[in-house]
Design the sequence.
């Protein structure tokens, strides 16, 4: 049986055109696996050099 | 695939042949990103848009610079009616690869048509508004709004699903099923759609002994079922009781209810809709008006500045030509100088040009340029003495010949070119006196007395002046 109230909560407002710019800028802050790998590699190197 | 460190093309080895960097992990990440992209592509090909969405997002989690995955994700969003999300992905893709990118075409396609972009924006706003109505328990308004949304954007999955949910809540199973089927045509494997569809199917075809809705229960209570051989007979209990009066009564009640619904539900919604539309238009017109006013102000300022510039240039031009005669004066002076340089002995010609120049530019001396006055000063320094002598000769001869009308201007010019020539001024006074113009004669004699005191010409001027005064007293 479908619970209307519960189902309604799953629907979120759609992104408006005015909000698109903010969403696009937010992309810069996201980190993918490649970036994580590179940053980790840098930290490892720094540690090794310190040791 | 290229090395992230040196940009060298990577080979089958686990290290970069260019810089020696270990690229094992990097290659694995890239392969995973590409794997999910391929998976997303496969799913999108069979219209499993939800599945494609998940795979493509996964691909971008591994490598956010996977342009193909991002473009396809945008395309999937666009197909699902999520235009702004699609635009977002394409714009990011453009930033990552500005040239030779299909996202440029997609973005241009949307941006080039302003009315389409406005319609998209309105659709999204209406969808959000419909969602708001749902939260406020104004489900009828939400249905109306969602229908509008879907008329603009028939592929908007979320709007179809929300409308289906509202129909399910209102136990309008057929309508809900219709919406959900539309969803399936766009996105074949959407979990939410399939879940709703399952519920709707269950309600439309109740299982033997299974659950059913209150409506169906009440309906089953109103009828009698019994087996006759292999057939199931369903007979209404009070089917024969309905008379013509009750039918008419029900019809009347139905009409009244219909009018009431129209008055209390549909009309306010329509009025509100119309009001919003008017407000939107008013806003657009107001913005356009503001823009035009700004343009007019700007144009007026431009006109003013151009008018000022025009006046300034006209004034500047006037210093060179036309009304003030400075250009003519320059021409006249050039002619005089030219004539002198051509033949220095031809003073008559030079004097003629100088006289013409004096007549033409007499009133515009203030507007003369520095270049003009410098040239004139240099020229006069060379010729003034000779011109003075030339004019004095003419004036003196004319005076002796008693041709005073010729003598007066010649002697004036003679004194003007050489203001040390006391004879020229003295004979000018005499010429005026002989011609009967005693007032002028008195002025000139006064000049001789003032400018050349204690000279023979000054003493004689004093004597002539006394004579004139005596004559005027005697008269």
Sequence:
């Amino acid at each position: 049986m479908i619970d209307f109230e519960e189902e309604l909560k799953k629907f979120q407002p759609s992104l408006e055109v005015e909000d698109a710019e903010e969403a696009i800028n937010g992309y810069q802050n996201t980190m993918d696996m490649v970036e994580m790998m590179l940053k980790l590699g840098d930290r490892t190197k720094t540690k090794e050099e310190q040791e | 695939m290229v090395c992230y460190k040196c940009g060298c093309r990577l080979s089958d080895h686990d290290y970069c042949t260019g810089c020696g960097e270990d690229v094992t992990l990097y290659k694995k990440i890239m392969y995973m990103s590409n794997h999910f992209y391929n998976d997303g592509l496969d799913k999108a090909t069979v219209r499993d848009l939800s599945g494609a969405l998940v795979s493509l997002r996964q691909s971008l989690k591994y490598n956010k610079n996977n342009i193909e995955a991002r473009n396809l994700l945008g395309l999937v969003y666009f197909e699902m009616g999520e235009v702004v999300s699609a635009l977002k992905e394409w714009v990011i893709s453009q930033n990552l690869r500005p040239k030779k990118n299909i996202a440029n075409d997609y973005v241009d396609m949307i941006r080039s048509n302003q009315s389409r972009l406005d319609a998209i924006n309105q659709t999204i706003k209406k969808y959000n508004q419909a969602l708001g109505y749902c939260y406020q328990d104004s489900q009828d308004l939400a249905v109306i709004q969602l229908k509008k949304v879907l008329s603009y954007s028939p592929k908007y999955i979320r709007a179809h699903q929300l409308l289906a949910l509202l129909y399910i809540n209102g136990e309008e199973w057929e309508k809900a099923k219709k919406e959900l089927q539309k969803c399936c045509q766009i996105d074949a494997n959407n979990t939410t759609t399939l879940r709703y569809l399952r519920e709707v199917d269950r309600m439309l075809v109740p299982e033997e002994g299974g659950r059913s809705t209150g409506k169906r229960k009440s309906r089953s209570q109103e009828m009698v079922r019994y087996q006759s051989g292999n057939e199931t007979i369903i007979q209404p209990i009070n089917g024969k009781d309905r008379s013509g009066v009750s039918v008419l009564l029900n019809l009347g009640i139905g009409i009244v209810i219909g009018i009431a619904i129209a008055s209390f539900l549909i009309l306010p919604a329509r009025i509100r809709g119309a009001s919003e539309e008017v407000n939107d238009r008013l806003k657009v017109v107001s913005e356009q008006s503001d823009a035009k006013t700004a343009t007019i102000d700007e144009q007026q300022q431009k006109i003013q500045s151009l008018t000022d510039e025009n006046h300034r240039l006209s004034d500047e031009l006037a210093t060179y030509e036309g009304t003030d005669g400075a250009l003519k004066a320059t021409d006249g002076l050039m002619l005089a100088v030219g004539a002198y340089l051509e033949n220095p002995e031809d003073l008559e010609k030079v004097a003629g040009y100088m006289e013409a120049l004096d007549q033409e530019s007499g009133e515009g001396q203030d507007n003369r340029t520095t270049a003009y006055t410098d040239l004139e000063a240099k020229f006069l320094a060379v010729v003034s003495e000779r011109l003075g002598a030339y004019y004095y000769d003419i004036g003196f001869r004319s005076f002796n010949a008693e041709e005073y009308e010729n003598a007066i201007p010649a002697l004036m010019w003679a004194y003007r070119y050489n203001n040390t020539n006391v004879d020229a001024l003295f004979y000018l006074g005499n010429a005026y006196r002989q011609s009967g113009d005693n007032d002028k004669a008195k002025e000139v004699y006064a000049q001789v007395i003032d400018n050349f005191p204690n000279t023979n010409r000054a003493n004689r001027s004093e004597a002539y002046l006394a004579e004139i005064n005596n004559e005027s007293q005697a008269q």
Q: What stands out?
A: Residues 33-50 of chain A form the longest helix (18 residues).
